[in-house]
Design a protein that fits this description.
The complex is a heterodimer of chains A (about 650) and B (about 400).
Chain A: H1 2-31, H2 34-41, H3 43-48, H4 55-63, H5 69-77, E1 81-84, E2 89-95, E3 100-104, E4 111-116, E5 120-122, H6 127-142, H7 147-160, H8 163-175, H9 179-196, H10 200-209, H11 216-226, E6 228-234, E7 243-247, H12 256-265, H13 275-284, E8 290-291, E9 294-295, H14 302-315, H15 324-332, E10 334-340, H16 345-394, H17 402-419, H18 423-448, H19 457-479, E11 495-497, E12 503-505, H20 506-528, H21 530-540, H22 542-547, H23 552-577, H24 584-599, H25 604-624, H26 629-646
Chain B: H1 6-9, H2 11-30, H3 41-66, H4 74-102, H5 111-123, H6 141-165, H7 170-189, E1 201-202, H8 214-241, H9 243-253, H10 255-260, H11 265-291, E2 293-294, H12 301-314, H13 319-337, E3 344-345, E4 350-351, H14 353-371, H15 378-384, H16 400-409
Antiparallel strand pairs in B: 1-2, 3-4
Classes of the chains: A alpha+beta (about 650), B mainly alpha (about 400).
Chain lengths: ~650, ~400
């Protein structure tokens, strides 16, 4: 294509010519570089360095559209701008140590060499000028071509913005092209307007725009507006105060003593004499075993003490105390009220309304969050109890060592992680391995102990408890008493965060999913497989089942092994978020039994219902008394004891012949 | 028909009391305070504590071996008894200290100031200084001793009433009692429970107003424990000896049948449950002043299960079996865990008995359950040649299988 070719060579020639011109003009342009020229133009007011007159210089720099202008402003603000006396030009200086500055040109950024500070003059902007400079800088960042820097600037403003940011922020909204950042800018502008808006109307408008927004930053912007201070005034509330509410001394919000203390602190009433001072005054005035006319030995009586002190005060040896009459009169003579720190009534009214909308939304979100927490707790209980639902629920064998099987599963996960450093792979290996280990342990226990005790449940309880003690101590001997880490793979770290209130960690979601998988697995095995059929047959009538060709011994062994194996897998899951110690199982055993008993023995849906109920109940109690999870467990157990009064067979009770007994 | 006297029908009671008296006398004569000084004060305390454990084992045997209620919560009552007496001991002792330290002040303190100082002393560790309402009677020994009976008794009465009226039996009841003691332990673990959270009550070995040395006090407590054990044993033996005893054994063997015979099964069970809770409370009240400290870990479910272990190893269904089991297991246990047993070096591995004792205990418990359901007490049958026909280990027990075998034989 010849025409294009010629075009190309033509362009080439122009570029070459331009380059030649540029390289020639370089020494010249150092003389007339645009930023330096600008600085020289405003040289007088820059050197004057006064808050009142400086604005044209900053505005010229900020509005120049020149790239180095930002660097100039930053250097100026950081007191790194120097004036060289020899040529009267501005440079950026970097301390080279020993009162020597390395100078850089603003326009080209090139290093110009060292210069002693005696030959330079440093520009020291005062705090007022620095604030102007910062505001000008924000404008640059807000219009920075890099979106990440724009976001960073917005974050800075949200963290500690002030009134000077408002103008550049508003100006930058118009030109913003990225819709996400534009939204963020508008939001930041509203947040900033709440506190620094130029007039009441704008502030109220901004507050109303954000009403019901549950984000933390909105609440952080509104809370300072609604901060109150307790005040007292003689007679009536003075005019012009933005009163939040009036308080009556002696109410729950303000005790009479506190009210009086406030009066004394604000100088409206005579202060109380502290007990320690009174004691010191009494001790200082003892003479002949008496003080204030009272025998010292009698001062164990508070009334005698008061009399002695009153006598001292009457003699002028101690400051007089406040009498009851004075106390009452002072309280009656004053009003007590809370005032908002924010003087504008319209703003506080809007903020109160916005806050109540926010609180309502936050409450709803908290309920949702609590529901998620409860669900997660329920799935943990379910996971811990599902093995028990097989051994205890279906087979009727009470296995106190079930908790130790959970512990064995967790330790299996720990040991696997010692050999396989990749956490994802190690968990995938640990799950089947934990099943295998606890399956084997369960089968061994069934063969050696439990099958001899099938018709003696209380003795099964005791024998399995003996095994539980032994297993716990063996684990302690092998792994020590300190907690061992079972680390979750990195993709399970972190949390799924819906908003500032609702969030749930991925591990808990994984456990929830695991619980669902186990529910499905259990149902599949029990309803669809040969083993499940045989298990149900043996459970309902062992002799009949054996006459139908089922080997009850084998079925019992496998079922028990299955229940134990599931406990092992639960152990791996629990170990991911709880600390792995030899007492891990103990923490879950009673709750697991409760889950099965409350839900109804012999029914997986019962265990599910039991776990859900216990999980939600416990979280509910924790919500009412958030500081105290121990109390929540106490109340939960009491609740279960009472619950069993009304449904002794659990939530889902088997009916008819399947119920046994 | 002339009824024989109680002791004539129960010669073992007299034998037991004679042995207990001889033991107490022997220990007293060998003690540092009153005799030759062969036994150290700390070992006398261990013996005294063991007697208290024997007493609660008797209670456990009564409720489990005779009435068939496998309670896994009796240490809750034991602990509550200890807490009740501990409150008085701690209050009075702190009061003595506070009053002594305030006596030097120029102005004598008012009662309110003393109370505030005691409160700060006792509750400082849990960040409080005020007396909770439950300490209302802590200044009065008589009231606190009454509470030793009232608190465990009321708890047992309420819990038992709730559990028995809804016909919770067997393993369900066991789990429920375990839950009860767990709930109590968790409650006490809180700092705002008013009982100093996991710090518990301490310094209980010092009797307020008593200047005698610990050597003397320990013997006093040994006497008190021995007396309590003797009386408790007598009471238990009397309760199980007559018609009442037959009824509760009947309940153990077949609850439904006893109910159909017209007995109020729930009433009997409730009585036994509450009575044993009272005995447990007294045992606790004697135990903890000798131990010196009580904390919520003492009422953790594990303690009550060990109680069942003692009774099972000693042989349930006979009172002296429970005593032997508690004494034997707790003394052997403290011997092993005390580090006095030399380690066994197997070349590749050294068996440290402090670490392995629990394993042995657990496994021996399994073995006893499987092969010797009568426990150590069964040895006495061998000695007396009173061997009952071999029931394949399935003798008395509250379950249906055992009963059918017995019926077939009779």
């Amino acid at each position: 294509m010849p025409p294009l070719n010629t075009g190309n060579s033509f362009m080439m020639r122009i570029l070459l010519a331009l380059a030649a011109v540029l390289s020639l003009s370089l020494p010249v342009s150092a003389q007339e570089a645009p930023v330096q020229a600008l600085l020289q133009q405003h040289r007088d007011i820059i050197l004057e360095s006064s808050r009142k007159t400086i604005e044209p210089a900053i505005a010229a720099l900020a509005g120049s559209g020149l790239e180095p202008a930002q660097a100039v402003l930053r250097a100026w603000e950081n007191k790194e701008m120097w004036l060289r006396s020899s040529d009267g030009r501005f440079y950026r200086g970097e301390s080279a140590g020993g009162k020597v500055q390395t100078l850089y040109d603003f326009d080209s950024g090139t290093k110009l060499g060292d210069e002693p500070e005696s030959a330079l003059q440093q520009l020291k902007p005062n705090s007022g000028i620095r604030a102007l400079l910062r505001a000008a800088l924000v404008q640059f960042q807000l219009n920075d071509p890099n979106p990440e820097r724009r976001r960073a600037a917005l974050q800075t403003i949200q963290r500690d913005g002030d009134a000077s940011h408002l103008e550049p922020l508003r100006a930058s909204i118009e030109t913003e092209t990225d819709p996400a950042i534009k939204a963020l800018k508008e939001r930041t502008e509203a947040l900033l307007s709440i506190r620094h808006g130029e007039n009441e109307a704008r502030r109220v408008e901004a507050i109303e725009a954000l009403a019901g927004d549950i984000a933390l930053d909105v609440r952080a912007a509104l809370n300072p507006l609604l901060a109150t201070r307790l005040k007292a005034a003689p007679g009536a509330v003075p005019e012009g105060e933005n009163v939040a509410r009036q308080l009556k001394p002696g109410s729950t919000a303000l005790s009479r003593d506190d009210a009086y203390r406030l009066l004394a602190e604000s100088g409206l009433a005579k202060p109380h004499v502290p007990a320690a001072d009174r004691l010191a005054a009494l001790a200082a005035n003892i003479a002949d075993g008496r003080v204030g006319g009272e025998l010292v030995a009698r001062l164990t009586d508070p009334a005698a003490r008061d009399r002695a002190y009153a006598a001292l005060a009457a003699e002028g040896k101690a400051p007089p105390t406040v009498t009851d009459a004075e106390f009452d009169a002072a309280l009656d003579g004053h009003v007590f009220y809370e005032v908002y720190a924010e003087p504008s009534r319209a703003v506080t009214t809007a903020a109160v309304a916005a806050m109540s909308a926010i609180n309502r939304n936050v409450g709803m979100m908290q309920a949702l969050d609590l529901g998620l927490d409860a669900l997660s707790l329920a799935s943990i209980f379910f996971l811990a109890a599902i093995g028990l639902a097989i051994t205890f629920g279906v087979m009727g064998v009470i296995n106190m060592a079930h908790g130790e099987f959970i512990m064995m599963g967790a330790y299996t996960g720990y040991v696997v992680q010692q050999f396989i450093p990749n956490y994802t792979v190690s968990i995938l290996v640990a799950l089947p391995l934990a099943f295998a280990v606890t399956f084997a342990a369960g089968v061994a226990m069934e063969r050696l102990v439990i099958r001899w005790l099938y018709d003696r449940p209380l003795e099964t309880l005791l024998a399995t408890f003996g095994i539980s003690i032994a297993l716990q101590q063996i684990a302690k001997n092998i792994f020590g008493t300190q907690a061992r880490p079972l680390t979750a793979p990195a993709w399970l770290d972190g949390a799924w965060v819906l908003n500032d209130v609702v969030g749930i960690s991925y591990i808990r979601i994984a456990i929830f999913i695991l619980a669902l998988i186990f529910l499905a697995l259990f149902l599949f095995i029990m309803k669809k497989t040969r083993l499940g059929l045989e298990t149900r047959a043996v459970t309902q009538n062992a002799r009949m089942a054996s006459s139908m060709g089922i080997n009850p011994d084998r079925v019992n062994m496998l079922t028990f092994g299955l229940g134990s194996g599931i406990a092992g897998i639960a152990g791996v899951a629990i170990g991911l978020f709880a600390k792995v110690t030899s007492e891990l199982g103990q923490d879950y055993i009673v709750q697991s039994f409760m889950t099965v008993v409350v839900g109804g023995v012999g029914n997986i849906w019962g265990a599910l219902a039991g776990a859900t109920m216990i999980g939600f109940f416990q979280k509910g109690v924790e919500w009412m008394n958030p500081s105290n999870t121990l109390a929540a467990q106490t109340y939960m157990i009491i609740f279960i004891i009472i619950f069993i009064q009304f449904r002794p067979r659990g939530i889902i009770a088997l009916k008819g012949r399947a119920a046994g007994d | 028909m002339k009824r024989e006297s109680f002791f004539a029908r129960n010669p073992s009671v007299l034998v037991f009391i004679a042995i207990l008296a001889l033991f107490t006398l022997g220990v007293t004569l060998a003690s540092e305070a009153f005799g030759a000084g062969l036994i150290s004060t700390s070992f006398i305390k261990t013996l005294g504590k063991t007697l208290c454990l024997c007493l609660i084992a008797v209670a456990m045997d009564l409720v489990w071996g005779f009435a068939g209620i496998l309670s896994l919560g009796h240490f809750a009552f034991f602990g509550l008894g200890g807490y009740m007496v501990g409150m008085w001991l701690m209050y009075e002792r702190t009061r003595d200290i506070v009053v002594a330290s305030m006596a030097n002040a120029p102005i004598p303190p008012t009662p309110a100031e003393i109370d505030a100082a005691i409160g700060t002393q006792i509750f400082g560790v849990v960040g409080s200084s005020e007396f909770p309402a439950i300490w209302f009677f802590s200044g009065s020994l008589v009231m606190q001793l009454l509470l030793v009976l009232l608190v465990p008794g009321l708890l047992a009465l309420i819990f038992g009433w709730l559990a028995f009226r809804s016909r919770v039996t067997g393993v369900y009841l066991s789990i429920l009692t375990q839950a009860m003691t767990l709930a109590l332990a968790l409650y006490l673990f809180q700092n705002d429970s008013g009982l100093r959270g996991n710090n518990g009550l301490s310094g209980l070995q010092n009797l307020p107003g008593v200047t005698a040395s610990q050597a003397v006090v320990s013997v006093w407590f040994l006497w008190a424990s021995a007396l309590a054990l003797g009386l408790g044993y007598l009471l238990a033996a009397w309760v199980v000896s007559g018609k009442f005893g037959s009824v509760i054994r009947g309940i153990r063997d077949d609850e439904a049948r006893v109910r159909f015979l017209g007995y109020s099964v729930e009433g009997y069970k409730l009585f036994i449950f509450t009575l044993t809770a009272l005995i447990a409370g007294i045992a606790g009240a004697l135990y903890y002043p000798q131990a010196g400290i009580i904390n919520p870990a003492e009422v953790a479910p594990i303690a009550s299960i060990y109680l069942a272990v003692w009774v099972a190893i000693g042989g349930r269904g006979r009172l002296y079996g429970a005593v032997i089991g508690a004494a034997f297991v707790s003394l052997v246990s403290s011997w092993f865990t005390g580090g006095q047993v030399p380690s066994v070096n197997l070349g590749v591995y050294t068996i440290n008995w402090v670490e392995w004792w629990q394993v042995i205990l657990g496994l021996s418990f399994v073995l006893v359950t499987l092969f010797a359901p009568k426990g150590i007490g069964g040895l006495f049958d061998l000695a007396q040649g009173r061997l009952v026909p071999n029931r394949h280990g399935a003798d008395y027990g509250p379950d249906q299988g055992a009963l059918m075998e017995r019926e077939g034989r009779e």
